Amino acid sequence: MSAATEFLATDLGAESGRALLAGFDGERMSLGEIHRFPNVPVHAAGTLHWDALRLFDEIKRSLSKAVRESENLESIGLDTWGVDFALLDRDGCLVSNPVHYRDSTTEGISQRAEERVSREEMYRVTGIQFLPFNTVYQLMAMKGSPLLEAAEDMIMIPDLFAYWLTGEKACEYTAATTTGLYGLEERGWATALIETLGLPTKIFPAINPPGETLAPLLPAVADEAGASGLHLTSVASHDTASAVVAVPAEGEDFAYISSGTWSLVGLETPDPITNEEARRSNFTNEGGFGGTNRFLKNVMGLWILQECRRQWMHEGKEYSYEELAQMAKTAAPAQSFIDPDHHTFLAPGDMPSRIERFLVATGQPPVEESGDMARCVLESLALKYRWVVDKAESASGRKAGVVHVVGGGARNELLCELTAEAAGRTVLAGPYEATALGNALVQAYASGRLGSLDEMREVVRNSFAVRVYEPRDDRGRWEEVYGRFTDLLETESRGVAAE
Fold first, then answer.
1. pTM to 2 decimals?
2. Of these residues, 239, 339, 341, 372, which one is catalytic?
3. What is the rounded distance in angstroms from the CA atom of residue 329 to the CA atom of residue 257?
């Protein structure tokens, strides 16, 4: 497809980063990967860090490649994961290397926060789900540290790279709403909450909306990449927000699963939902593009299988993801289940052993073979997806007739099949590179080539086919399986779970 213009979409995920050139001819968008690189955290002095400087170097490499390969490059956009942040001193230098959300720094910090502000009040103000690694808890873990005392600005990870590219310090809206410090009523930083928690209000910078031209590249960056005249667009810089832009939905009666290392499962709503049912079910309300609200829950996602695979490789059993999917497909169904969101599965480590301990603690049969364990993980994910969608419908009063699965997990045919069966709903899988696609679509919007979220999604439908998965007729068996799974969740909630 010959394109009138191109956009560079750089997307950093928890395992890898990728840069794609998006060509847009006014009706359809094409994507071509030009650079991919690993994102490997580093343990140093007992703390797990992101390797921010190396990642920035890879971002500049992506830019150089894009300039060489494109004659029509108009702008660049950048998105990453949420929650994590960088602190800058008065000279604009990093106070310390950004800490990884899977680090143990925040253990027990949420209880300390609740001594100052009740969970009910925090949820009323922010609408954010309670996760141990939320930005608010990471900052509270730093109270009394000279690092926090030296900070003049706190910016989220995508904003750090934007600052290094342009020299502009600000927080992008969708990323800011993941912190647990953004006030729904204030439509900005929740200053009173921040003060009550004893955090410094001075470090929170201005918040930029997505869909605006942010700034030209710094001369030194432009010279290094040969990118004179280019600018950075403020896209929906939280990767899930970008992925949801690219959901090829028509109408409003849909649920989405942004599936990858994490699975983000929820509904798109016009306004935040902070009722008691939403709080009890620990749903989050995060900003979306175009004034939308992402009413969702984090589900641990394919991280669990990734860590299993890493452990098996360490033991000399090397399986590709395709091999694991085939082994899981031929394994006996519905033997045992895990709650993917149990805290024991959050940190890196020997995941197969943790799964076995969880099964023993909850009185379930062990799954010793790799294929059986992969099946256990995938079935448990599919069942948790249904649980989340059911709870989202109940709390919001909305209905989801179909489930859109976007992102890398949409390639996992077995997981999509199991999701359709477990949920009893049609599953539409694709596009696979939804995050980069949403990133590029917002750039097209900022350039004036698209005028609304509906137009963006029409471009997605014009450009990328989806794969359809329909539930079969054996609903009775799946209802029995789902009943067993919900019994497990209730058992776990009563404290009978693996440590």
1. 0.94
2. 239
3. 21
> 83's torsion region: left (phi>0), alpha (psi -120 to 50) or beta?
left
Angle between the 370-396 and 475-493 helix axes, to the nearest 10 degrees?
Answer: 80
pLDDT of the residue at 204: 98
Q: How far apart are CA 144 and CA 129, in angstroms?
A: 26
What pLDDT, on a 0 to 100 scale, did the predictor assign at position 499?
A: 45
Tokens of 484: 């067993």
pLDDT at position 474 is 84
Q: Does the fold of domain 249-430+466-499 match that of domain 5-239?
A: yes
Query: Which pLDDT score is estimated for 2?
Result: 46
Per-residue pLDDT, 213: 85
So what's the pLDDT on residue 200? 97
User: What are the tokens at 161?
Assistant: 């790279």
Superfamily of domain 249-430+466-499: ATPase, nucleotide binding domain (3.30.420.40)
| Domain boundaries of the chain, sorted by first residue | 5-239, 249-430+466-499
End-to-end C-alpha distance for the chain, whole angstroms = 54
Q: What is the pLDDT of residue 495?
A: 62
Residue 239 appears among annotated catalytic residues? yes
d(C-alpha 188, C-alpha 205), whole Å = 10
> Domain 5-239 has what CATH class?
alpha beta
| Positions of the chain with pLDDT lower than 70, given as ranges | 1-3, 493-499
